[in-house]
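Lab notebook, page 48
Experiment: co-folding of the full assembly
Goal: obtain a model of how the components sit together before planning crosslinking
Operator: M.T.
Materials (sequences as entered):
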Amino acid sequence: MNSDLPVFGVAAEFEDPEKLLDAARYSKEQGYSALEAYTPYPIKELDEVIHTLNPVPAIVFVTGVLGSATAWSMQYYIAAIDYPINVGGRPLYSWPSFIVILFELTVLFASAGAFFGMLWVAGLPRLNHPVFNIESFAGASQDRFFLCIQARSHDFDSKAAAHVLERFDPIGVWEVENS
Amino acid sequence: MTAIEEKQRHAQRRLDPGREYPVITASETFATVTEQISSIVLTRKTPLFWWCGFGAGVTLLTCFGIAIVWLLGRGVGLFGINVPVAWGFAITNFVWWIGIGHAGTLISAILLLLRQSWRNSINRFAEAMTLFAVACAGMFPLLHLGRPWVFYWLLPYPNTMTVQPQFRSPLVWDVFAVSTYATVSLLFWYLGIIPDLATIRDRSTSRWKYGIYGVLALGWRGASRHWQFHETASLLLAGLATPLVLSVHTVVSFDFTIAILPGWHSTIFPPYFVAGAIFSGFAMVLVLCIPLRTVYGLHNVITKRHLDNCAKLMLATGLVLGYTYVIEPFTAWYSGDVYEMHVVANRAYGPLAWSYWLVIFCNVVAPQALWFKKIRVTPQPLFAVSVVVLIGMWLERYMIIVTSLNQDFLPSSWANFIATLVDNATLYGSMGLFIVLFFLFIRFLPMISMYEVRELLPYSKPGGGTVK
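Observation: model returned without errors.
Model output:
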């Protein structure tokens, strides 16, 4: 995405989640629309600042319904049409005994939907990303908090963005190359 | 101290009556927990304990391998099974192992939904325990098939034999339940471990490790949008796994209860099996975490609080189990059915009476020790009670299976079950499989969820912090 831009954005490293949150709020107020934070654990309060459309529940619902439909139609087709067995005169379409597999396949499909759907909407697996160009980015999975104002923000200017981030006492501020 | 902090401290004091042990030691920081947990994988010398345990596991696994090869070559006649006792150790082991897995899902899914944050530090290895227990469990129905190489006949697929599975049979339900459980447990576990694999990648000490953990981490970079998707997916998976875990042992109990055999044909079986499963699972969690916290010095993240809570859950599920032990003979007596009453008598006074009374001792009498807080928080007696419970739960399944079969409706066909060498080799061998998988896990993957432990730290939440 945006590989035509010379820089990916401007990133700052913080030691304290609170400062990250303040910086994110302030940057948003300043009109920077494309923000992303990189944190070693989920921070609930950030969700309000860096808002995103979350399609995971919808994916899980659809795959779950698909699982139910698959289970029911498979059992109906096999038990009543493809391989009918008369067990003591019981109806071929004996739906109460189909419930268990209906439930199991619903859960199976929905869980696969949750896992692969989450990866898909997150664009993972993706082993390369511009933010990995930040020298100290390894800290983002340990004890450091990064905020990146992306270049695709409206009216982006590296110097101005860096100035905004510097107000919050970061450990460092870098321009992130887009490569 | 600011006003808000004062308020929070006050709230905490009210919630926490001061008698509770902390979930995590107060002196920890993001850096210390990350270092402590990732160093086990990356830098620390592998302790002698690991080599001994792994060696023992490999030895037992070798026995398992030999037994399996022998079994495949000669057939299931090598088991002690025959008519009337056609289900022996294999099904006992299956039910025992799959039950053990249930506590892992309970910790990772149900306690997540209930916002029990203390689970954060034990959920990773409990979930791994589930995976490996299900792997062990899955071996047994396959070995018991007689011709395991055509196991795929269990699944519905278009075939030239023009036959299909019988969906009215609980044995077919079981195939779907167990395979779904294994898959969902794997997905849930992997979803949780992705951020920690990224931590291991970022701390890796060689290019090899960087490459391997980097690929396994799928390029996770901790973006806040990704965390939102991750959290949603985790919660939804937890919501799906919660009814699933209850359904799996229910379906396992259907294998018994839908058969019209006295002693099996009972409506109490589903809750009875689920309670027993969670009971034995918590015993296994304790058997695993008590040595681990000592060997790897994890007392700061697996505290007495965790031991205490697991022991309480074990006691509670043990009491449910005790209740069903009382209700079972009552139902038999109340039914007025001579065959039902005979099974009760056969269990208590028949050839397997020793197993019945041992079950009562291990699963009902021994756990009563857990009423005492001193025992719940002292590792050694708690470990001993857990081992007793694991033995008791295995015997319970053995007792349920054999005593309903060995004296059936026709006295002329009564016979006892005698376990063979292969029976024993597969039981202990499957423990070897479990030990090998678990030891590989604790050596090569972060056994405690680092990102969830970070969330337990007091200043992880902006606004509630001590760092200013």
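Interpretation: Chain B touches chain A through 69 residues (CB under 8 Å).
Next step: discuss with group before ordering constructs.
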